[in-house]
Amino acid sequence: QVQLVESGGGLVQPGGSLRLSCAASGRTFSTYAMGWFRQAPGKEREFITAIRGSGGTTVYADSVKGRFTISRINAKNTVYLQMNSLKPEDTAVYYCAASRPPGNFLYRSSAGYEYWGQGTQVTVSS
């Protein structure tokens, strides 16, 4: 069982930056691939990015490529989402998710993830 807790959301102006964090429980964090998703009101949950359990290999949605960066520090059981050049259309609830071990495959579908955080609101508005 893995418990995930996101933090770092808030209100930011267009063009600004935020860094989200996702802290995980447990002692085998490095065996889980981690993903970030988001869901805007009235829309389906959208894949943003994922990173392998060992780190290094990442994948991004086209909508955030070049603006968002995923990273992880396994010693801290934490995955991060650095968001730059934010746009109003980035407004959503952001979720982190963990796939089943061994964490080598990067799923773009939410079905590939077994554990989810409660989400953190990001609002981009002037």
Question: How would you concisely characterize the structure shown here?
Answer:
With 126 residues, this protein is an all-beta fold.
Key terms:
126 residues, globular, mainly beta
Main sheet: strands, sense, barrel: 7 strands, mixed
Could you tell me the mean pLDDT?
95
Name the structural class. mainly beta
Helicity, as a percent range: under 10%
Unreliable stretches covering 5 or more consecutive residues: none
DSSP summary: helix tally = 0
Mind telling me the C-alpha Rg? 13 Å
Cα(first) to Cα(last) distance is: 40 Å
The coarse overall form would be: globular
Strand coverage percent: over 45%
Query: How many runs of DSSP E, i.e. beta strands?
Result: 11
Give the ordered list of helices and strands: EEEEEEEEEEE
Describe the structure.
- The chain has strands at 4-7, 10-12, 18-24, 34-39, 46-51, 58-60, 68-73, 78-83, 92-99, 113-116, 120-124.
- It is mainly β.
- It contains no helices and 11 strands.
- 0% of the residues lie in helices and 46% in strands.
Present the secondary structure layout:
Elements (H helix, E strand, L loop, with lengths): L3 E4 L2 E3 L5 E7 L9 E6 L6 E6 L6 E3 L7 E6 L4 E6 L8 E8 L13 E4 L3 E5 L2
Parallel strand pairs: 2-11
Antiparallel strand pairs: 1-3, 3-8, 4-5, 4-9, 5-6, 7-8, 9-10, 9-11
